[in-house]
Amino acid sequence: METRPKIKVKRTFLDNTIEILGWISLLTIWMIVLSAYSNLPVSIPIHYNLEGQADGFGEKFNIFTLPVISTLMFIGLSLLNNYPHIFNYRIEITEENATDQYTIATRMIRYLKLIIVVVFGLISYKTIESSENQSDGMGIWFLPLILGLIFIPIVYFIKKSSK
């Protein structure tokens, strides 16, 4: 097993901004769900088909699944981000390229954390709207949007890492 340098990656203003936006988004999800919970009907949508229409229903306490999962993922990825030397890389990590590669990788994780929280927030919000009969579900645009939000940054950072 190769031994990689253990380097503390210095955060830039952009990194700190993304981190703060992630925490704000996470708190916002919780505020939205907690404030809407008492007004939700007994049964709410808990699953959507590819067209964004609700096709599965459950009890209203299921609305807490989304903020709980997003919180666990956000905290888990935040902890993981402290150990960039254990990530998988497409190239060999050396003393010369470790700082650049670790910076790219930790920034990608930061973007993904923010995107995950925003996606879960959108799902929570649209679920609450659907429950209150204010919308027909997610809409057909939702899945392509989510896939784009997730995969475009991944491709960008992988390309950047390969240079």
Short description:
The chain has 163 residues and is mainly α. Helix content is 59%, strand content 7%.
Structural class: mainly alpha
Give the N-to-C terminal Cα separation: 24 Å
H/E series: HEEHHH
Tally of structural domains: 1
Describe the biggest sheet?
2 strands, antiparallel
In helices, the fraction of residues equals 55-70%
Could you name the ranges where pLDDT drops below 50 across 5 or more consecutive residues?
A: none
Question: Count the strands?
Answer: 2
Q: How many whole angstroms does the radius of gyration measure?
A: 19 Å
Strand order of the largest sheet: 1-2
Account of the protein in words:
The structure is a single chain. By secondary structure, the protein is mainly alpha-helical. It has one domain. Helices cover 59% and strands 7% of the residues. A two-stranded antiparallel ribbon has the order 1-2. α3 runs antiparallel to α4. The longest helix is centred in the last third of the chain and has 34 residues. The relative contact order is 0.18.
